[in-house]
Amino acid sequence: MTDERIIKPRSADGFKHIPGSPGLPLFGQTFQFISDPIKTTLDCYAKYGPVFRSNVFFLDMVNVVGPDAVQAVLADRDKLFSSKLAVDAFAKDFIGRAIIARDFSDHRFHRRIMQSAFKSEPMKTYLIRMTPHIAMGLNRCEKDNYFLFYPFIKKLSLRLASGIFLGLEEGDDLDAINGALVTMMNGVMAPIRLRIPGLAFHEGLVKRKFIADYISELIVDRRQNPSMDMLSEFCKAKSEDNEQFSDEDIVDHMLLMWLAAHETTTSLLCHVMYRICQFPEWQVRLREECYGIGKPAIDYEDVTKLEQMDWVIKETLRLHPPAPILMRTALRECEFYGFHIPANTMLSVGPGVSHFLEEFWAEPKKYDPLRFSPERAEDKSHPYAFAPFGGGAHTCIGMHFAAIEAKAILYQMLLNHSWQTPEGYDPKFKMTPIPKPKDDLPIKMTNLPRRSQFH
Ligand code: HEM
After folding, report:
1. Residue numbers of the chain with a pLDDT score lower than 50
2. Is 386 close to ligand 1, i.e. is its CB under 6 Å away?
3. Which atom of ligand 1 is nearest to the CA of 402?
4. DSSP 82
């Protein structure tokens, strides 16, 4: 039953009654969508309203846009929409039975156990682990000369993930694991999904097995000797009924953590740096806020004190959401916003598209972190007006982790250094699969005179 759903996505004939355009013969709206999914979706929303059909990547789908409609799908009060079937259709070989590929009570059971790895005590230890890696990464940065920020921050966040998720240090199998992860991630994103040696998809699967075997061996050790890493937390974690994850569960959950955490955080930090170089007044404000903390690196208690940094991060996530569009599959036929949706319909749900709607945001295209200040609180105009981490049962479990990591990195970057993009810098963005500046963001770091208390 499940496989049949995956192999035969719903044909558009089943929802011709839904407004929308079929786009180009065969390719539908694929090219527009790849070049700018948010703009493509916004244009259709303006034309057709919150529910419309499209064809992308050879799949006929129904799009859901606008905070009310997005909330109806993601909150899913009637248990109509499956994350599992949607994920299986795109990335089953890589994701396996990870948490995002589970629905309803099965999902809730795994999420409850997993949640203990994201409580404040483990978070504190993750932050302690991050701090020296960030300092080391910054020390290796070229000074007073332009370098490419995207590969730098990608490498740093990969290093942080290997340290925090698996407890790997320099000299362990760090380079082999990080290299394998990059190949695996390229496989997940590969457009041609054939198991032919040499193709990114096949090579990604080979490396997935390599990493899965590696994690399986580590699990044996961590079950005996827990350490300060997320893998140990997953090994220890228990539900209220004292149930634990199996080894296979842990491998799948761990691999998803990487996929979910790495490119998203890299994208966020890249766009924050671009924006605070574009608006140097914000760079100055954030640095002043860091001076107010008065330490070389932040502790867990300092995270909430960085209020303006919070606004900058949120405003960046609003304008450059790393995952603006999510996928679900209708489990049963249903009525949705007055339209009949057949069973097995693939839904493209756009929480990040709401970030650009004038009904909810003043001058939505403008970069304006103050809109998140308590005085303006534009994000509170609707529970789903600002939803970079999704919503409902599958809301990002790592959203606080992401904020801590982003703040820990930005703090150390801003405290003793100023950052600059080239004069008149006006980047083009690659919008899919995860947004990034096309030219990898050339940037110059200049050391500032150190304040004595921050040595
Ligand atoms: C800026 C950074 C991040 C963004 C924008 C982001 C965004 C999202 C979104 C939109 C979802 C919902 C997916 C859906 O409903 O289909 C999600 C789920 C998830 N994210 Fe994140 N994420 C980020 C960072 C992280 C980090 C750092 C971790 C782990 C440490 C993480 C782990 C996960 C997991 C495990 C899920 C699936 C949760 C579930 O199915 O219950 N994410 N993320």
Report:
1. 1-9
2. no
3. 27
4. E
